[in-house]
Amino acid sequence: MVVSKAVIPVAGLGTRFLPATLAVPKVMIPILNYPSLHYCLEEVIDSGITNIILIISESQREVIESYFIHHDPLVSALTDKGNIDLLEKVEKIKSRAQIEYIVQEQPLGLGHAILLAKESIGDNSFAVLLPDDLILGNNPTIKIMLGLHSIEGEAIIAIKKVGSKTIPNLGIIDTSDSQGQIRQITGMIEKPALPDAPSDLAIIGRYILPADIFKAIENSRPGALGEIQLTDAINSIIPTRGCKGFIFEAHHFDVGVPMGMLKASIHKALSDEETKKELKDWLETVE
Ligand code: UTP
Q: Is the pTM of this model over 0.90?
């Protein structure tokens, strides 16, 4: 089945990025000069998906929409100066993608945010990307996952080996396979205590999900904080649909927290010869 739509939920409160998120949506905070949302959209578009559903909060709407609006005076000024490279990158996203905005009135959880895309998605499998998980590589991770999506209706989730310190903060999978880049997932648990963790493989924010997930979310009960979790819904479709985990190889940064954003910015700066030199020269002067 061809996956032609992607859902990108960004309506969370971004409390781990306060106080910046009082005024700026987390996905618009830049990694060097591009907001994290830009990288996520590029990953989707470079994977061949052009229908993108952004789940936003009402307060984010103006700022996020303005990123995709054609700014005539700016374009003319840059064209006159022969300096339109950066704007072209943004134009590329606008011209190659169709973005639908859906407002989540209250941040009732990731599961709830995904459920809002039900009507737009219809009966087909779809991709979900969480921009907090920035994945940088030559080959877009979601594109590789689309290539693995051979069995109709099967869910596919990006996973990564993590250290024991971080396990209690993440969603962790249980698997019947002990090796290989692709693992059969038998269950998953959100933020387990270390002794209860079924593996050291964490769920990272890239998913391909069947449309059955909507019914499963509707049947899920809110968790302790009143949030509707996606993990619970995926768990409930594993027996009927099956679920695979894909251990991706590209660089991953948790840009939902300031230190992850800083590391991603440094990684970006070091991957360009000009900025690399400037950064390294400066670092040598730092005590
Ligand atoms: P997180 O819970 O990890 O991030 O949601 P958050 O809520 O933005 O930030 P913190 O935890 O308060 O610091 C994972 C993804 O799901 C979206 C978030 O925007 C993020 O992209 N999300 C979460 C929603 O769209 N709606 C929600 O109700 C909850």
A: yes
